[in-house]
Specification:
Blueprint: E1 5-12, H1 23-38, E2 47-51, H2 55-58, H3 63-67, E3 78-81, H4 87-100, E4 106-114, H5 122-126, H6 142-157, H7 161-175, H8 191-196, E5 199-201, E6 204-205, E7 214-223, H9 224-230, E8 235-244, H10 258-271, H11 276-279, E9 282-284, H12 290-299, H13 308-313, H14 332-335, H15 340-356, E10 370-377, E11 382-389
Parallel strand pairs: 2-3, 2-4, 9-10
Antiparallel strand pairs: 1-7, 1-8, 4-7, 5-6, 8-11, 10-11
């Protein structure tokens, strides 16, 4: 039988564009903060898991090997996870299994991304993920295909553009209270401000898109007996789930993320959750684009198909709700920043802080006993989910 696994500490660097540090230095900074939070030394860590996205971002081939010493992995068992934007949440799933299996008692999970090093732009690296015969000749990029998905989602459910813009308004306001938020992206915006911004690929507007970011995050996890020696209030990893759908995105109906649903069902089953709308009290869905937060909330079964936008209009997902489910109280990727592989782990850390009651100004009003973080990535087909509880 798998042993229980707890989170003992967390750390994250400032989110910014063009950080002066190398990737390994960002990883070191986050790892050091997580160890201090857990009141542990690197010598007490049995193994290290690293999440970091394409080597092209840092411009260093075999980037996982290059960053390993910065992440504290010298002379320790070390593995790299990478499933695009889903990597940050997948990395803690990876660490969870290493500890739950009984192979190790402690694991340091580090997620790093330094996107500003990629020249001329990360979209150039993303272009190589498409089928070289059927898709790449069309000159597609991620903004282009996400505009198709957003259009399909809006058309099926008859969602006004103004409602999608409300996600940006909510998350950018929440991000104002996050100490690590990237300069210039959080703030008090109106729907008009969002829709007055530049059209990137209709119906995607600039203020509906998360920015390029450099940052690292880290978490220390431990077995039950190790956790109980070190803290009276461990935060438990109750359930994990993941799903990989086909990368041939043109063969799927994009209005619904079924891979998120499959990942969520796996995590709910592990956590013994029968009614997620009553048993999940705070949620951090992946929001690289405004519409994706609503898309993912439906995939997580926290709203019926097409209902998440209507609940948004009623304030159901607001941070100060007392009867709804606060969504992205951190500010999310729209309000804090989007260092691809590290973004998901930032969301896990937010749920960890909410459950500990240490989220400061971002602390939600309603009582929280259980929370969920989710990430999404690769070619719109990876779903990763983790559920934490007190």
């Amino acid at each position: 039988m798998a042993q229980k696994v707890a989170i003992l500490g967390a750390g994250m660097t400032k989110f910014m564009r063009r950080a002066k540090e190398q990737g390994k230095e960002l990883a070191f900074e986050a790892a050091k903060m997580a160890l201090l939070d857990a009141k542990m030394d690197i010598s007490e860590i049995d193994c290290v898991v690293m999440a970091t996205a394409p080597d092209a971002f840092d411009g260093v081939h075999m980037k996982g090997d290059w960053i390993s010493d910065g992440a504290g992995a010298k002379r320790k068992p070390y593995m790299r996870s990478y499933v695009g934007g889903g990597s940050g949440v997948f990395s803690i799933i990876h660490g969870f299994y290493l500890v739950a299996s009984g192979m190790f008692d402690t694991c340091l999970v580090v997620a790093e991304e330094k996107m500003s090093s990629c020249m001329p732009h990360p979209q150039g690296a993303f272009n190589t993920i498409y089928d070289q015969f059927l898709e790449r000749p069309l000159g597609v990029n991620l903004l282009w295909i996400f505009s198709l998905e957003m259009m399909r989602y809006m058309k099926v459910h008859k969602i006004p553009l103004e409602t999608i813009a409300l996600v940006s308004v909510k998350n950018k306001k929440n991000g104002m209270d996050h100490p690590c938020a990237q300069k210039g992206i959080a703030g008090e915006y109106t729907v008009k401000d969002i829709l007055d911004s530049e059209v990137i690929a209709y119906p995607v507007y600039r203020l509906m898109v998360s920015p390029i970011t450099d940052a690292a995050c880290a978490i220390v996890i431990a077995s039950e007996h190790e956790a109980k020696k070190r803290t009276d209030k461990p935060i438990w990893i109750e359930g994990v789930g993941w799903c990989l759908d086909t990368s041939y995105w043109t063969n799927r109906d994009l209005y619904y993320p079924r891979y998120v649903e499959y990942a969520a069902r796996m995590a709910y089953d592990m956590a013994g959750i029968k009614d997620p709308r009553k048993e999940i009290h705070v949620v951090e869905p992946y929001d690289p684009f405004a519409y994706k937060e609503l898309h993912h909330l439906e995939g997580l079964l926290l709203a019926d198909k097409g209902e998440a936008p209507k609940l948004l209009e009623k304030g159901f997902w607001n941070r100060d709700t007392e009867n709804g489910i606060p969504s992205s109280p951190s500010g999310g990727l729209l309000g804090v920043g989007n260092p691809i592989a590290a973004a998901g782990l930032m969301k896990v850390i937010e749920i960890y802080l909410q459950l500990k009651g240490e989220a400061g100004k971002r602390q939600v009003k309603r009582e929280v006993k259980r929370g969920l973080a989710q990430a999404w990535g690769d070619l719109m087909q990876v779903g990763t989910v983790v559920i934490l509880s007190k």
